[in-house]
Amino acid sequence: MVVLLDSVPYGDMPTTRTLQEVERFGLGDTMMQNGKVIRTRPSFGVLIVLPLLLSLVAPIANAGAAQEQATGYAPEDIWSDDYNNMIFPWASANDRVLQFKEYHSYETMKNRMLRLAEENPDIFEFHEGMNGGTNARGEEVTANAYEGWYYGHASPWMKITADVQDGDYNPFVGDNGNYADRHDVMIVGNHHAREWMSYTVAIMQLEVIAFSYGNIGYDNDGDGLIDEDPWGDANGDGILDDDGDCLGLDASFQDSNGDGTACGPGDLGVDEDYSEQFITDLVDSREIYLIPMLNVDGNIYDREVFCPAPAWESCPSGGWRKNLRDNTATGVTPLPDLQEEVDEDCDGVDLNRNYQFEWGAPLGATGPLIPGTCTPAEGELDGSNNDVYNGPVDDRDNDGDGQINEDHVDGKDDDADGVTDEDWWGGNSEPETKFIQDLTEMNDDTGDGSSEFKATLTHHSYSELILYPWGHCTDCQSPDHEQLKYHGQQMADMTQYSNLQSSDLYPTSGDFCDWHYGVHGSYCYTSEIGTAFHQHEDDIDHIAVRNLGTGFYIAEIADSPRERADLEIANISQQNYLAPGDKVEVPEEGDIPVDLCVANDFPYSESNSMIEWRTVKPSRLQSDYGPREWATTAWESVPVKAVMDETCSVPSGNGTILRGMVPISETATGKLHYKATVSTLAGSDLFQYPSDGAYYELDLSYRAAYGSVIGSFLMFGITASFVWGGLAVCLRMMLSDDEEAIDLTDALLEEEKK
Amino acid sequence: MSDEGQSDQFNGRLGLIFASIGAAIGTGNIWRFPRMVGANGGGTFLVPWLIFLFAWSIPLVIAEYAMGKRSRTGTIGTFRIFAGKKFAWMGLWTAWISTAIGFYYAVVSGWTIKYFQLGISGALTGENVDTTEVWNAFLQSPGQVIFFQFLVIVLTLAAIWKGAKAIEKVNFYLMISLFALLFLTLFLSLWMDMEDGSLDGAMFMFTVDFAMLKEPEVWINGLSQSAWSCSAGMGMCITYAVYMSKDEDTVLNAFTMGLANNSISIIAGLAVLSAIFAVSPDPLATVTGGSSAITFLALPEVFAKAPFAPIGPLFMMAGFFLALSFAAMTSMISTVELCVRNFVDHGYNREKSVALTGVALFMFGIPSAVMWIKLDSEGVAFPEFLEVQDHIWGYGLMFSGLFIAFSIWKYGYLRWKSGVEAGVAPPGFKGYLGFGVSAFRDDFINTGDNDMEVGRWWDLLMYLAFPILFSVLMISYFSDMIANTPDVWDPTNPKGLSIILLFWGVIAALFISFNKFLIQRPLYRNIPEGAEVDISSLPGGDDDLVVARGEDAPGFEYLTVGNSA
Fold first, then answer.
1. Residue B502: its chain A contacts at CB < 8 A?
2. What is the pTM of this model?
3. Cα(B359)–Cα(B367) distance, rounded to whole angstroms?
4. In this structure, are residues A269 and A79 in contact, taking their beta carbons and an 8 Å threshold?
5. Which residues does chain B have within 8 Å of residue A709's beta carbon, measured at their own beta carbons?
6. Do residues A345 and A383 lie in contact, with contact meaning Cβ atoms separated by under 8 Å?
7. What pLDDT band is residue B492 in, cutting at 50, 70 and 90?
8. I want to staple A265 with a disulfide (CB 3.0 to 4.6 A). Which of A140, A546, B230, B490 is the partner?
9. Cβ contact (<8 Å) for B504 and A51?
């Protein structure tokens, strides 16, 4: 039965009905207005028979109109049933786990990853931990160094890139599909065991990639439109619901996720129809290292032992956070002690305090526990002080110079020996953090010794935040502060979360992002998903949907996050311009070319850029005594094409001409309104020209011939014989008929004489 | 002259025709028609425009003449007799709409006289004349606008002071001059257009674009042009029919009037388009532009380039605006007469009525002349109050036409019912179609005075085409307005729908409640000797207070004296 259901192709969704709905629904506001118009138009009967009644009830009609305005569509009027019920297309409706109605366990997640890798061998390669070998620090590492202390699993992860079986093989990491020209991005979930949404969002991204890759033009919401509402505010109007479908719903349906925000992220109809081309392009041009569940040990313990199901009831405000390092049995060096039960008061290391950069720095750091003193002092809460334990001090002489901890990891050469950060104080002591460390340092496709991961993202729970470095210091700013803040804001806009410097929430040291940014210069973000550690299972799907865009955003900017931010911050996009009305040359015949000049260093995408246009004609309501009145048509769009043999100039130099051919008939008169939308590389950033909501105007003159000689002769003949001929006949009848009647002229003349 | 207690009549047929044509021909023919041709694909527009002349304007005019000829009263009396006592307010509505339009039409007529004065004095033909500046300066000086408005009213009152015979004479001279002036303008325009090698203006005006004929827009515009420019259904023809001689041919008159109206439109259209095509680099943009804009801004510029300078431009400018002012004046005359006729019908002294109407026209026209003079986005002044007035009352006119159709429908139904009771009409729906539907035509149109028998086609047009076309006009108008006007339901928006409905509602409610007072007044019919004016079969026929002029109305004997004094 399940197999049968599974084999039902998702494409069979009933789209024909919704197509009509969409036609009626149209392209957002204008058409919405039209829809409103249709409903408020008084019926003919009322008009013809009771103009009076109508007028008397004008104020009521007014109120009625206001009410109509508020009444909108129901979800079933617009979208497919599956979409309305958040049934995802990658699994049968009753598979609660794959439908994100229940949480994955480690086991189901791993099995799903294996299955997806098996079904999509061209883009997915499944891994657990790494092979090991000699790492970047010259240490010999074996594969089991990455296995959890307690249950012994290495973190499962997926290598995602097109033709993943080709490319270079990395013997240390064990992955194929390493390409020097593809930009790498790392997305990590579940540092903290109890933060279940943090791995769920990563798995959903995996599902979406598997489903969307190459599936171009898929209609995600079944409304008949394609890719009409990508993540974030694509059209720059400040509204996430770019196609206006959610906003067109009746108000009672607009907050489908019940978070109190109408048509916010995660609501039905918001960012619901992203571009499969965009995702495909990303997979083709990026290597995505997706590690949904870093802390497998902790997660299993949290799920199976610490918080009996349902976890959101047994652990409403807590849960197991750390990994399962056995702090009581081990001294300074970790000695796994599988026989011993987990000592909840004492065991575990907070993985997100265990990275080496500024490890244990005074602010926000929790000093290492002294072995054997786990039991909290009198008056302290049980284990409360342990939750952010950052791991044991490393008293080895890491660089073999006879000194210990003389140059901790802070990006500076503390001992002035010409080598930076070579003898750290602690950190990266855990299998999980070591895995991240070695993956980062050993995945060197280009062989230049620096990290390939220019952008990194780690999911956490909860607080609805996007955090960017630094975390280890307060009242401090990183050198890339503005740029980091910029991308953070983009993701915050997408999720409607708050964008903060990490330490402005609270100072932390040794976290993932400080290390990635501080040591490897990677633009690293922490997303704090949702509103609880163990979010209620009813909320899994929509919270995951709400946070889906960030993983793709980070992948998109992984080519050059700093330049991308600079581009925006320095407003290079503002150098681009659309030819104003007086610069458009209207040809004698055919379509009117409208040129857009794009700065050469602006990463435009031809396929997602367009010229939008509409015509404006003198309205039929033209009054005989007032100024001319205009009536506008709905906006339409034409694609643009780069013109090869011409250039245009922008303030910074030469630009490329993108030309759209606007189809205006030669007999048209009136005005043309036009504006342009320019998309960056992969279509997630859209810029409007001349500016948001504005447009240029071009007077249209009649270009066709004024008529044909023969045709006009013919029509003149017909008209003249009808009108003048008819008039002559009438006058003749009148006069001949009335021989005896007084000739008026005579009569008047006679009267004059009188 | 009209004081013998006898009826007031036109001298002859041509007098009636000229008066009717004068009423029909107005600024709509000369400044609206060319714009519509330009905006609707040239010759393409002529197709619906011609069709609707025969499908809408002429049938309605026939009905008006027939009604007026039988009732021998103005609009109020006609509806009192034809639609019944309860519906005399329809006539009041018709009269009010026409008069309310007259309030601002006098102002507009004043503009045309001002422009004639400017034209003849050469102020528009000199070097570096900025027509926008001239226009704005004029419109923004209240004194001038009011002066010319006043002038128009004085001239109009002088023309109609003495009743039908004077109206006849004035219309005759003005119309003949109008033809002559328009032909002069046309000649000069064609000359101008020929100078650049081709008659492209004329060619455009007569080339049909068959693809464009599929556009509903063109048909709706053709219909509205037909409906407005001919004055059909506005009560003008009811009013002038009062002065018809007893055996006047209503049908022939209707055709003559409709065709003459369209003839003038063609001549004016050709003259304007040829001139614009001759000199304007983008003639269609010029012609489809604003409304007053083209007449008072573009045309003077165009005419200034007429051949045979300096005398040609002067002739063309003065001639055109004189023609325009004649067209406006003759329409003004019919407007005032319509109002005055209704007073006279109810036993008021003609001179007093004329004077009262004149004062009212002047007083109520002043706001349109001077209030809310604004600048549009292109820096051209326009009178917004006047525009709002036009907006409100222009479409109110449509209901006057509907009321006429209503009277016809009602008469047909009642006649059939009483016919069935009397055993002369076949019962059932078929009987109704055969007897009732044609009753109005049989009883009032085909009276034997006509050269042409009006056939079944008229019934079809009145019963089928009219309601359909009326709905199309109304629905397209309101849906356009709702779609294109921001804040259309806001009652404070002068261009919105609520204000129209409010004005209509208030006026209609007022008139309906006034109806009972209206029918307590006697109604004096202007009956020529020997005319067949039996109204006993009509809903309002059984009314002691409806009497012939000079007769006594029971209880109002004192009025008979005043009436004939």
1. 55, 58
2. 0.58
3. 14
4. yes
5. 203
6. yes
7. confident
8. A546
9. yes
